[in-house]
Each structure stands twice: as structure tokens, then as C-alpha cells.
Write a structure and sequence with these properties.
The complex is a heterodimer. By secondary structure, chain A is mainly alpha-helical. Chain A has one domain: ABC transporter involved in vitamin B12 uptake, BtuC, CATH 1.10.3470. Helices cover about 75% and strands about 5% of the residues of chain A. Chain A contains 15 helices and four strands. Chain A has a two-stranded antiparallel ribbon. A two-stranded antiparallel ribbon of chain A has the order 2-3. Chain A is globular and about 60 Å long. In chain A, about 45% of the residues are buried. Chain B has four domains: about 160 residues, Rossmann fold (3-Layer(aba) Sandwich), CATH 3.40.50.300; about 80 residues, no CATH class; about 160 residues, 3-Layer(aba) Sandwich (Rossmann fold); about 70 residues, no CATH class. In chain B, about 35% of the residues lie in helices and about 25% in strands. In chain B, strands 6-9-10-3-11-12 form a six-stranded mixed sheet, sandwiched between helices. The chains are: A mainly alpha, B alpha/beta. Chains A and B meet through helix 10 and helix 11 of A and helix 2 and strand 8 of B.
């Protein structure tokens, strides 16, 4: 975390005000999101404290209920940091639930065999998209849009009906809990936090991670600096495919069924979480921790609306929309400042 | 300065593009511990030669030897590994990363795959220190001005190869137009660094359009013309007149002719009137009048608001105060379209990113603005279009004179001419030229300046922005002086106005 905590000293020759310096700091959006999360949580506490909002388990449930989204958003963070976009996330998740349910229920394969297969398929799908994007120089938007349709279609090839999972090992895995004293976490929540930690390490302490930032900052420059930008790009989409498949597995555990319509549009939730977490859609700037807070904010909105009781769940979408808009405006303000 | 063996030798280099032979059998050699200038007009093949050397282009013929060994350079990465580093005119670093990372990325010190940030920062700081620079390596690159970023690019290239203690680092450093957007102090700092590296035995290849700089810093030069070698000379043995002679290949009186050119006196009535026009963060409110057939020059340092002023007059940025009247009618200026229909044309300073469409042909680029003015529902008849394009290619001497050539493959000067042709074809009343001569050679410069003079004689008003004061003085009837994003003075040109006077005005912020 040393990169992110040490304050970059602005050169003396530039007499920027403290406020301007803060606005130029790349970590500001993460701070804003973290503050927002905290404020929302405190507001929730004061409003619903009689309904048990203060229970530690309510907080831990944020991770349990959104673990799959966190994993998907981590994958999306890699892609967006590199300056790309991945629209296939939701479809890959949906496809993974179908594939897993089908292999376990209809083919009778043990879940421990199915997991690597599902992850492999997702990663390979991501690799193919990355390969096409790099080698044929096609917009990631279009290529991953094709991936979106392809994987959604493949769901229906497996089955038009949803497949519920009754396998004992799957349900025991789904119900396994790790006690933390004040509450518990599910397997999915723990996996998502491990993924987050690994992603943090990769982005900040490996050459691959820094290359992701570099090509997001300026791809042409990265190429002229002698960085293997093609391999990095392909790897980024592979990571995203892998994360999507893993998110699909967590989603399967969470919901214990496969359905061709599972996770429709979840790529947009993932992208929203990344953007709310302060990562610039233009690439090159952002932090994985921001993505965590982005996911938590989205999760907290859902919880609050549940606690409110009378509000329709569509208010989640409305609140997300408003937040997204606000954060994009903040990003805009930051990038225009940088230009001048 | 002569060393027994060149570190780099290129023999019989040939490079062809579809329809263009960019290099035909060029020889080039570079000795360790020298600064070597590569000279030539735009389109002479300098950039191509550099791109061949640095692995951006593959070569179609000839050999490259480095330290006596034949090498094949297939990519920028291979060039770096062989010890050839390049700093381009546009800084090719990642502004979102810290200075230290930009110096080290791709070869960060790692242990078991983990980047050692502390060690990297320390080594970067040492390297910066050794080169006598004062840069905080932990700050993001984007927090430094362009000049410092360029120095960082050089530090990076010097550091290349010695991350693991192995490799002797850079043997050949290529600087492609590094000074084109630096001010004098920044150039001096760059030169100091270049001398230090030269004394350490690095061979430096330097490309610049500023002849004075070449004579200040270089030991030897190679001159190219039309993709062929003209000669290699010691700088001390060839004076500037001789050099220009070699570059152009014919007696060059155009420049002198222009020096003595008298500004025509018949300036008409007011064409454009800006009243309290301004934009927060862009330029303070200003009043400006441009008369018919008048050339108004804008002088000021880089970043003083020259471009911002021009962009307001073209509606590229929206003013938040003031109004503009053109030909007696108030124009809303909410978008470039308003300006274009009022007869304003704007040649942007970044011809690559804001003006030309590099993948379209010369013809398509030229016709773009005229088509836009007519509206998309009324296509220009093919015959008329071809005739117009041919006329302007001829009038401006665009080379190659092929309307089907892709603009991206033209040299800088010729790209500028294409951009000019595009706007001239719409017969504007006011032509805004933002740094039209930046990064182009003396010959093309003179042609463009002559063109400005003749246009204004025909009654077109011109707003002329240039970094070189002499250039502004030579052409303008009125000179607007900018300082700190403010139009501080408007001076009528005359024999008593000298570059020094203008500089004093810029420095003091008022005209005596």
C-alpha cells in the first residue's frame, strides 16, 4: 500500500493552492466514495437502529450478498484501467451458472471438477476477446458486445429452462460459514476478499499491473517505451473473463441454480461500481480499493431500501443512476483540471 | 572530435511507402561522444531515417551496424535493448504514473516478481541527481511542465539497460525535435544535459528546426534532401548560409526577400470586433478589432493565452462574457459552425489531433471544410472538386502532388499546407493561423509566410500566432501582446518596433 499512502509532493515551482492540489490527486475519488459509504452507513444507523441495522452481521452481509459483484467488478477494474471495456461480464456469469448447474446436475460431475472447467472456459473466452481486440485492432466495445450475445446465446444452447442444484456438496459449500465472533462470512464473501487482495498485489507490485496502468495512460507511449502492450491487453481481458467466471461460480453458490437469464445486465453494475469507485473510464487512473467501496455503496443502497420496506427495489437503480452521474461529473472536473 | 570507430553505421538505407520512396540509399554514421545533427527540409527523410533506426519502421534495404556488429532492429523494444533510445517530439511517457515509474517501467527492480518500490524510487532519485536535475521522482509526471517531462524522457532513455546492473546503458540517444515547444531556459537545461551525456560517451543524434541551436550544440551534421544523402560536415566547417543551401538545393533568397517585404498599407474597414470577450480559465476579457486585409499577430510566451484567444474567436470554446461582431453583424459563437458561416477559418496548432484526418486522402482533407459549409445535402460535383483540389495542390506546392496520398504519410510542412488549402478553399474573410510554421522547415516556412502576405493583399484578414517574434513582426500590421492569459497591449507595427521592444512589453506587461 506504500504507493497509495505516500503523498506525492508537488514540485515547488508550481504554486498550486491546497484545494487545487487535492482536486488533482488521483486518490480523491476513492476518498469521496469511502466518505459517502461511511455517511450512508451512519445515516442508516440513525434511521433504522431499532430495526437492527447496527448488527455487525448487516455489515458483513454486504460482502455475502455482493461477493459475486465484487469479483466481477475487480475484473472490470483491470479492463477499465487499461482503457478498455468489457460488456460480456453479465453473460459470462449467466453462462457459468448454466454450465455449472448442467455439469453438476445433468452430467453428475463433482463440483470440484466443475470449478476449474468453468474458470477455464471463462478465462479462455476473455482471452479470445482480448486476442481479437489486439490483433485485429477492433474496439473492445464491439468485441465484448459480441461476447455478450455469444455467451447469452450459449446459455440457451445448454437449456432453455433453469436448472436448480440439489447436489449435497454444493449446498454444503453454499451454507458453509466462517465465524468472526460478531458474525459470519460465507465462502463467497471470503473468496471475493481474497480476489480483491490478489488484485491489489498484482496491480501495485507486479510489472504486469503497472503495464495495465501504463497502457491505460497512453497506449502509444507504452508501445514506444518498449512495453509489450499487446500481451498486456490480452491478459487484461483474460483476467476479466476469469473473474467473470469466478463471479458466476459465486453467483451459482449464492442462488443455487443455473438460469439462462441470470445476471442479465450485471456488466453494467460492475462498470458502475468501478466508476463510482473513482476509476476513470478513459483508463490509467484508479484504485482497486475504490472498486471495493463502489460495490459496498451499491450494496448498501440495496440494504437501505430493504430496511425502508415501503420502497420498490427499482429505487436501487434510480439511486445508482444518480450516483453514477455525480461521479462522472467529478471525474470530468478532475480531468479538465489536469489539462489546464 | 573524431573517434576511430563509429558506434553506429547505417549504409544504403532504403525505405519505401506506397507511391513514395522516402529514403533511397542513405548512409549515416555516428561516433561515440558526439552530438550529431540530422538536417533537411520537411519530407527530406529525417523522421523516416529515425524511425528506421528506432525500429518503428522496418527497412527495405541497407544495413545497420552497431559497435561493428550487424543488427536487425524490428521493434522499439529491440532498439532499446540494443542501446538505442529515442525521445520524440511529443513526450511519449505515461502522464498518469510517477516520474520514477516512467523512468523504470518495463524494467522495474523486482524480487521474486514483486516490484521493489523503495529501491526503484531511490535509484530513480540517484539517476536524476547524477544528471544534475531537480525533479521529485515520486510526483506524478503530469504535475510537471512539458519541458521537464522531456528531461524525464531523456533520463529514462539513459537509464535503459542498467536495471540489473547489466548492460552499459544507452549508446545512442536520438532526440527528435525535443526543443520545438521549450522556452529558452528550458532549452539551456536540455543542452546542459546533452553535453553531460556526450562527455560520458553517449552518441547523440539531434534533430531540430532551429539552426541556431544546431550551431550551439552540435559537433557534426548530416544533411538529407529528398530522401538522399547530401553530405556530412563538421558544424565548424559549414556556415548557416551554406547549410541552407545544401538543404534546399538552390539559392535561397526567399527568406531575405521576405525580410525586406513592405507591409501593404491599404487596410480596409473593421471586419471583426470583439468586445469584452473572455472565458474563465481561458483568457481574461479583451477587446480586439481586425480590419479587412489586416494581419494581426499575436505575441506571447507559450501558455500565455494565444491559442485560447483564437479558439474563442472561432467558437471552439464558448465565451462566458462579451460579444463578437463580424462584418457589422453580431455572431453568437456558440460553435465553430457559427464562426465558419460568418467567414472565419481556423488552422489549429495541433494539426495532427485537431485539424487533419490522417487516414483520409489529401483530396478528402482539402474538401472537408467546403463540403461542411455547403451542408451534406449538396455534394460538390466531382469535376469541380477535382479541379479545386488540383488548383490548391499546385498553388501551395503540396508534395507529393497526389490527391490520393494519405495525409498521415505526408511530412509536417505538407500537412500544414493541406490544412491551409482546406480553409482557403472556403474563401474565408478571416483566417486564423495558430503556429502554422511550427515544426516545419525554413523553405516551407517562407512559403507559408509569403502566402499570408499575398492573402492579406487580396483583402483577407489574418490572425497570425507564432512563437517566433521575428515572424510575427515580419508579417503583422498590428501586434497583440499576451501575458498570463491577458491581452496586455496592441501595438501598431512600424520600423521602430523590434523583437526587443515586444519582449519588454511581454516582460513588463505594458507598452511604453
Amino acid at each position: 500500500m506504500s504507493t497509495a499512502t505516500k503523498t506525492p509532493t508537488v514540485p515547488d515551482s508550481r504554486t498550486t493552492s491546497k484545494g487545487a492540489r487535492l482536486l488533482g490527486d488521483r486518490r480523491l475519488p476513492v476518498l469521496v466514495t469511502a466518505t459517502l459509504f461511511l455517511a450512508m452507513y451512519i445515516a442508516g444507523l440513525s434511521r433504522y437502529t431499532n430495526y437492527g441495522f447496527g448488527e455487525p452481521q448487516v455489515f458483513l452481509n454486504l460482502f455475502i450478498d455482493n461477493g459475486y459483484l465484487l469479483v466481477a467488478a475487480v475484473g472490470a477494474t483491470f479492463v477499465i484501467l487499461s482503457g478498455g471495456i468489457d460488456l460480456s461480464v453479465g453473460s459470462v456469469i449467466g453462462f457459468t451458472t448454466m454450465l455449472t448447474a448442467w455439469l453438476v446436475e445433468k452430467q453428475g460431475l463433482p463440483i470440484l471438477v466443475v470449478i476449474p472447467i468453468a474458470l477455464g472456459v471463462g478465462a479462455f473466452g476473455g482471452f479470445l476477446m482480448g486476442y481479437v481486440i489486439h490483433n485485429f485492432e477492433i474496439q473492445p466495445f464491439i468485441v465484448t458486445l459480441a461476447g455478450l450475445f455469444l455467451f447469452r446465446g450459449l446459455c440457451l444452447v445448454i437449456s432453455k429452462e433453469s436448472i436448480s442444484i440439489g447436489d449435497a456438496s454444493v449446498s454444503s459449500m453454499a451454507q458453509a460459514q466462517a465465524s468472526l465472533g460478531v458474525g459470519f462470512l460465507s465462502v463467497g464473501a471470503i473468496v471475493s476478499l481474497v480476489v480483491l487482495a490478489v488484485a491489489f498485489y498484482v496491480l501495485h507490485y507486479t510489472r504486469f499491473g503497472r503495464r495495465v496502468y501504463a497502457i491505460g495512460g497512453n497506449e502509444q507511449s507504452a508501445m514506444l517505451m518498449g512495453l509489450p502492450q499487446g500481451g498486456t491487453k490480452i491478459a487484461v481481458y483474460t483476467v476479466s473473463g476469469f473473474c467473470s467466471a469466478l463471479a458466476g461460480l459465486l453467483f451459482t453458490l449464492y442462488i443455487q441454480s443455473g438460469d439462462p437469464l441470470h445476471a442479465t445486465g450485471m456488466e453494467l453494475d460492475a462498470i458502475a461500481a468501478v466508476v463510482i469507485g473513482g476509476t476513470l473510464l478513459t483508463g490509467g487512473s484508479g484504485y482497486i480499493l475504490g472498486t471495493l467501496f463502489g460495490v459496498l455503496v451499491l450494496g448498501l443502497i440495496k440494504s437501505i431500501i430493504q430496511f425502508e420496506g415501503t420502497l420498490s427495489s427499482w429505487w436501487t437503480k434510480i439511486a445508482t443512476g444518480v450516483l453514477l452521474c455525480a461521479f462522472i461529473l467529478i471525474q470530468r472536473a478532475m480531468t479538465t483540471r489536469k489539462k489546464t | 572530435m573524431a573517434e576511430p570507430l563509429p558506434v553506429l553505421e547505417m549504409t544504403g538505407i532504403v525505405k519505401e511507402f506506397p507511391g513514395v520512396r522516402a529514403l533511397s540509399g542513405v548512409d549515416f554514421r555516428l561516433f561515440p561522444g558526439e552530438i550529431h545533427a540530422l538536417m533537411g527540409e520537411n519530407g527530406a527523410g529525417k523522421s523516416t531515417l529515425i524511425k528506421v533506426l528506432t525500429g518503428v519502421y522496418s527497412l527495405d534495404g541497407g544495413t545497420v551496424t552497431l559497435d561493428g556488429k550487424a543488427v536487425r532492429i524490428g521493434s522499439p523494444l529491440q532498439a532499446q535493448q540494443a542501446g538505442i533510445s529515442t525521445v520524440y517530439q511529443e513526450v511519449n511517457l505515461c502522464p498518469n504514473l510517477s516520474v520514477a515509474e516512467n523512468i523504470f517501467i518495463g524494467r522495474e527492480p523486482t524480487r521474486a516478481g514483486r516490484i521493489q518500490w523503495k529501491r526503484m524510487r531511490k535509484e530513480a532519485a540517484e539517476l536524476v541527481d547524477r544528471l544534475g536535475l531537480d525533479i521529485d521522482v515520486t510526483a506524478p509526471l503530469s504535475s510537471y511542465p512539458l519541458a521537464v517531462q522531456q528531461l524525464v524522457a531523456i533520463v529514462r532513455s539513459v537509464g535503459t539497460g542498467d536495471s540489473d546492473g547489466a548492460g552499459a546503458g544507452t549508446k545512442v540517444l536520438v532526440l527528435d525535435e525535443p526543443t520545438s515547444s521549450l522556452d529558452r531556459d528550458e532549452v539551456l537545461e536540455l543542452f546542459r544535459l546533452m553535453r553531460q551525456l556526450r562527455d560520458e560517451g553517449v552518441a547523440i543524434l539531434f534533430v531540430s528546426h532551429f539552426l541556431d541551436q544546431i550551431y550551439e550544440i552540435c559537433d557534426r551534421m548530416t544533411v538529407l534532401r529528398n530522401g538522399a544523402l547530401v553530405g556530412e560536415h563538421l558544424v565548424s566547417e559549414l556556415d548557416q548560409v551554406g547549410l541552407i543551401h545544401l538543404m534546399i538545393g538552390k539559392a535561397m533568397d526567399q527568406l531575405e526577400e521576405l525580410h525586406e517585404h513592405q507591409l501593404h498599407a491599404d487596410v480596409g474597414e473593421a471586419l471583426l470586433h470583439a468586445d469584452g470577450l473572455g472565458r474563465t480559465g481561458g483568457i481574461a476579457p479583451f477587446d480586439l478589432e481586425i480590419k479587412k486585409g489586416e494581419v494581426v499577430g499575436l505575441a506571447g510566451l507559450l501558455g500565455s493565452g494565444r491559442t485560447e484567444l483564437a479558439r474563442l474567436l472561432f467558437g471552439a470554446d464558448q465565451p462566458d462574457s462579451g460579444k463578437v461582431t463580424i462584418g457589422g453583424k453580431q455572431v453568437s459563437m456558440s460553435a465553430p459552425n457559427d464562426a465558419i458561416s460568418a467567414g472565419v477559418a481556423f488552422c489549429s496548432e495541433n494539426r495532427k489531433t485537431e485539424g487533419l484526418v490522417p487516414d483520409l486522402t489529401v483530396r478528402e482533407n482539402i474538401i472537408l471544410a467546403l463540403q461542411a459549409a455547403r451542408g451534406w445535402t449538396r455534394p460538390i460535383p466531382a469535376a469541380q472538386r477535382d479541379e479545386l483540389v488540383a488548383k490548391y495542390i499546385k498553388a501551395l506546392d503540396i508534395r507529393p502532388a497526389n490527391p490520393e496520398a494519405r495525409v498521415g504519410q505526408l511530412s509536417g510542412g505538407n500537412q500544414q499546407k493541406v490544412l491551409l488549402a482546406r480553409w482557403l478553399i472556403t474563401q474565408p474573410k478571416l483566417l486564423i493561423l495558430d503556429e502554422p510554421t511550427r515544426g516545419i522547415d525554413v523553405g516551407a516556412k517562407a512559403e507559408i509566410q509569403k502566402l499570408v502576405v499575398s492573402l492579406s493583399e487580396e483583402g483577407m484578414s489574418v490572425l497570425y500566432i507564432a512563437a517566433e517574434l521575428e515572424e510575427v513582426l515580419r508579417l503583422s500590421h498590428t501586434i497583440g501582446v499576451l501575458r498570463d492569459r491577458k491581452l496586455v497591449a496592441q501595438i501598431a507595427n512600424g520600423p521602430e518596433i523590434t523583437p526587443t521592444r515586444i519582449l519588454e512589453t511581454i516582460a513588463s506587461g505594458e507598452h511604453q
